[in-house]
Design goal:
There is one protein chain. The termini are far apart. This protein has three domains: about 5-130, HUPs (Rossmann fold), CATH 3.40.50; about 130-160 and about 200-285, Serine Threonine Protein Phosphatase 5, Tetratricopeptide repeat; about 300-465, DNA Cyclobutane Dipyrimidine Photolyase, subunit A, domain 3 (Orthogonal Bundle), CATH 1.10.579. By secondary structure, it is of the alpha/beta class. The protein has a five-stranded parallel beta sheet with strand order 3-2-1-4-5, with helices on both faces. It has helices at about 20-25, 40, 50-65, 80-90, 105-120, 150-155, 200-215, 220-225, 235-240, 245-260, 260-285, 310-315, 325-335, 340-355, 360-370, 375-385, 400-405, 410-415, 435-440, 450-465, and strands at about 5-10, 30-35, 75, 95-100, 120-125. Helix 5 (about 105-120) links the parallel strand 4 and strand 5 (about 120-125). It is globular and about 75 Å long. The protein has 20 helices and five strands. Helix 4 (about 80-90) packs parallel to helix 5 and helix 10 runs antiparallel to helix 11 (about 260-285). Bound molecules: flavin-adenine dinucleotide (FAD). Flavin-adenine dinucleotide (FAD) binds near residues 232, 275, 372 and 377.
Length: about 475
C-alpha cells in the first residue's frame, strides 16, 4: 500500500504496537492520527484524572513520534465522522487500528468500517490489548469461560507472542497535515483537575514495569494486600491507555521469573494471575455484553436496592463513619487511584451495608478513577456485589472493621487519609465509636449504618430474588 493511517486509540505507544508495526511493514507511508473524541467532553462517566492522564499520554506520544520523524495528526470531533473524512482528505488506501472491546466501541468500529468501505478505503483492526481474545480461549464445549480458575489455566497453557519492536525512524520527510490543538489541561474539556495524578506516557510505563520487576514483584503475593505499602505495580492506567503493551509485560515477567528463586516464582505467578483477571473480564464483556446494562445473572436485576441519597453522598465523600471505607474514598477523590483491596471493601460496603446498587458505585468509580476501564470496573463491581460471573457469593460480606484491622493493622493508611483520627490508638483506629468522647472531639462522623444490622437486611434482599434459597 502507498499510504495508510494508523489511528491511535488505547495504544498510545511506539513500541510493541501490533497495528502500527503492521502499518509500517505494509505501507510506504504511515500517517499517525489521534482523535480527541467529543465524548471526552460530554460523556457522563469521564472524569478529570482519567482525562488528564490520557491527554498527557497523547502529548508524550506526539513527542516520541516526532523524534522518529512522524508528526501526529490530532483531530477533534466524533471519530465516526472524522476518520472517514480524514481518509478521503489524505487519499489513503486503508486505516489501521488496534481492536477495542467495549460494546459501544465495537458498534462504532462497524459504522466506521462501512463508511470507509463506501469510499473504497480498507479498515483493518488487530489484536493488541490482550494476549487472547474472547473466542480464542473457550471451554471444551466451545463456550466462553465464566469461571476464572479454569480460564486462567487454559490461558497459562499457551505461549504469548513476543513483543513487537519499536517503531523505526521514518524513511522520508512526512507532509505537514493540519492538526487541532491538544489541550493538556482537562479543564479545557470541562473537567477541572483537583487530583495529583501519576506520571503518564510510554517512558513512565516502561520505567514503572522495570522497577516493579526489579523487586516488588517477588513479594507481591503478600504485599499486594496492604494499602499503606506500595506492593502493586501501578500499571493499570498505563494498560488502560496502552502506554505499555501487554506482550512487553508478559515477556519481561517471564524473563524475570526464569532468574528467580522458587518462592519468588510463586509471587510472579500471583501477579500473572491478576493480569489474567484483566483479560478474563474483557472476554466476559465481549461475550456477555448485557453486563454493561445489568447483572451477569439476570435474576439479580430484580434486587430492590436502597435509594438513600444521603448514604450515597456520605460514601462518595468518605464520611460513612467507617475509617477504612472513608480513608479509601478520600484517597480515590484526591488521587484518582484506589488500592484493589480497598476497592473490594468500599464496593462491598456500598452494596451490602448501604444496600445501594453496584451500578451507582460503578459509575462513580468510572468518573473518579485514573484507570477507569469498563471491563475491569464492571467485573470488579459485579464480583463485589455478588451479581457477577465468578463472583463473591452474595452471603460473603466483608466486615469493614475486621478488614481494616487485618490489612491496615497499625492504622497507617487511615491516619494518612482521615487525619482527624490520627490521635486514636491502634486498637481503636478502626472503631473510633468505642471512644465516643474522643470521636466527637475529633469531629469524625458517627456510623451512618450499623454493619451488624445491615448484614441480615442484605441477606434477606438477596434471598428474596433467589426465592429464599441459597446456602450460607
Ligand atoms: C470494584 C472494583 C473496581 C475496579 N475497577 C477497575 C478499573 O476501572 N480499572 C482497572 O484497571 N482495574 C479495576 N479494578 C481491578 C484492580 O483493583 C486494579 O486493576 C488494580 O487496583 C490496579 O492497580 P495495579 O496496577 O497496581 O495492579 P496490580 O496488582 O499490579 O495488577 C497488575 C494489573 O493486573 C490487572 N488487574 C489486577 N487486578 C485486577 C482485577 N481484579 N480485575 C481486572 N484486572 C486486574 C490490572 O490491569 C493491573 O494493572 C477494580 C476492582 C474492583 C474490586
Amino acid at each position: 500500500m502507498k499510504k495508510v493511517i494508523h489511528w491511535f486509540r488505547r495504544d498510545l505507544r511506539v513500541t510493541d504496537n501490533t497495528a502500527l508495526s503492521e502499518a509500517v511493514r505494509r505501507a510506504e507511508q504511515v500517517i499517525p492520527v489521534f482523535v480527541l473524541e467529543d465524548a471526552m467532553q460530554t460523556g457522563p462517566d469521564v472524569g478529570a484524572a482519567r482525562a488528564a492522564f490520557l491527554l498527557r499520554s497523547v502529548d508524550s506520544l506526539r513527542k516520541n513520534l516526532e523524534a522518529l520523524g512522524y508528526p501526529l495528526v490530532i483531530r477533534r470531533g466524533k471519530s465516526v465522522d472524522v476518520i472517514p473524512a480524514l481518509a478521503r482528505e489524505l487519499g489513503v488506501q486503508a486505516v489501521f487500528a488496534n481492536r477495542r472491546y467495549e460494546p459501544y466501541a465495537l458498534r462504532r468500529d462497524d459504522k466506521i468500517f462501512n463508511a470507509l468501505n463506501g469510499i473504497g478505503v480498507g479498515f483493518e483492526v488487530f489484536k493488541d490489548a490482550v494476549a487472547w481474545e474472547e473466542r480464542e480461549i473457550l471451554t471444551q464445549a466451545g463456550n466462553p469461560f465464566t469461571v476464572f480458575t479454569p480460564y486462567s489455566k487454559a490461558w497459562k497453557a499457551r505461549a504469548v507472542a513476543p513483543a513487537h519492536p519499536k517503531l523505526s525512524p521514518a524513511k522520508g520527510k512526512l507532509p505537514q497535515i493540519p492538526s487541532d490543538e491538544l489541550p493538556l489541561d482537562p479543564a479545557a474539556l470541562g473537567h477541572p483537575l483537583t487530583q495529583s495524578v501519576q506520571e503518564p506516557g510510554e517512558h513512565a510505563a516502561l520505567e514503572t514495569l522495570k522497577q516493579f520487576l526489579a523487586g516488588p514483584v517477588f513479594r507481591y503475593a503478600e504485599s499486594r494486600n496492604f494499602p499503606s505499602e506500595q506492593g502493586t505495580s501501578l500499571l493499570s492506567a498505563h494498560l488502560r491507555c496502552g502506554t505499555i503493551g501487554p506482550r512487553t509485560i508478559y515477556n519481561r515477567l517471564k524473563a524475570a521469573r526464569e532468574k528467580a528463586t522458587p518462592d519468588q516464582q510463586r509471587n510472579c505467578d500471583v501477579w500473572l494471575s491478576e493480569l489474567i483477571w484483566r483479560e478474563f473480564y474483557l472476554q466476559i464483556l465481549v461475550n456477555f455484553p448485557h453486563v454493561t446494562k445489568g447483572a451477569f445473572r439476570p435474576e439479580y436485576d430484580r434486587l430492590e436496592w436502597s435509594t438513600n441519597e444521603d448514604h450515597f453522598k456520605a460514601w462518595c465523600a468518605g464520611m460513612t463513619g467507617y475509617p477504612i471505607v472513608d480513608a479509601a474514598m478520600r484517597c480515590l477523590n484526591a488521587t484518582g487511584n484506589m488500592h484493589n483491596r480497598l476497592r473490594m471493601i468500599v464496593a462491598m460496603f456500598l452494596t451490602k451495608d448501604l444496600l445501594i446498587s453496584w451500578q451507582r458505585g460503578e459509575m462513580y468509580f468510572m468518573k473518579q478513577l485514573i484507570d477507569g476501564d469498563m471491563a475491569a470496573n464492571n467485573g470488579g463491581w459485579q464480583w463485589s456485589a455478588g451479581t457477577g460471573t465468578d463472583a463473591a457469593p452474595y452471603f460473603r460480606i466483608f466486615n469493614p472493621v475486621s478488614q481494616g484491622e487485618k490489612f491496615d493493622a497499625q492504622g497507617k493508611f487511615v491516619r494518612q487519609w482521615v487525619p482527624e483520627l490520627a490521635a486514636f490508638p491502634d486498637d481503636l483506629i478502626h472503631q473510633p465509636w468505642e471512644n465516643p468522647l474522643m470521636a466527637s472531639r475529633a469531629k469524625y462522623p458517627p456510623r451512618i449504618v450499623l454493619h451488624e444490622e445491615q448484614r441480615p437486611k442484605c441477606l434477606a434482599m438477596f434471598k428474596a430474588v433467589k426465592g429464599g434459597g441459597g446456602a450460607e
